[in-house]
Amino acid sequence: MSEMLFGKEHVQRYVETDGAEGHDWQGTTVAILTTTGRKSGEKRSTPLIYQPYGDAYLLVASQGGAPDHPLWYKNLSADPEVELQIRGDRFKAHARTATPKERPDMWRTMTATWPDYDVYTTKTSREIPVVVIERA
């Protein structure tokens, strides 16, 4: 599983096995985020590293330090009603960007599980958003 692509195949295997395959990935944990395409209106599912944070879950819109936000982040910015799957638990949720006050502690939570997030900040001039996912 660790050699599997982090993309469509990952989503398919994760969904088919309720996360038995795909939740644990390269020393961290992965959830499946489903957003609605802001242009197409189609549902789009993306595997993303996550961490629990109180009653919420955190994601990072890093795109490896690319100069622009990832499409999934643009989609949830346009329509914050999303679905998140963690293992076999699929639920409707509301997504929002962490506030400037919340972000530092949330960023530390995410870099503790994926230290490369700090590296990604050196590759881009944009502030990489931390996304808070709260059950609907």
From TrEMBL:
GO CC term (a single one): plasma membrane
Pfam family, one: F420H2_quin_red
InterPro entries recorded: F420H2_quin_Rdtase (IPR004378), Split_barrel_FMN-bd (IPR012349)
UniProt catalytic activity: oxidized coenzyme F420-(gamma-L-Glu)(n) + a quinol + H(+) = reduced coenzyme F420-(gamma-L-Glu)(n) + a quinone
Molecular function GO labels: coenzyme F420 binding; oxidoreductase activity
PANTHER family, A to Z: F420H(2)-DEPENDENT QUINONE REDUCTASE RV1261C
Protein family per UniProt: Belongs to the F420H(2)-dependent quinone reductase family.
Protein's recorded name: Nitroreductase
Record organism: Planotetraspora silvatica
Organism placement in taxonomy: Bacteria, Bacillati, Actinomycetota, Actinomycetes, Streptosporangiales
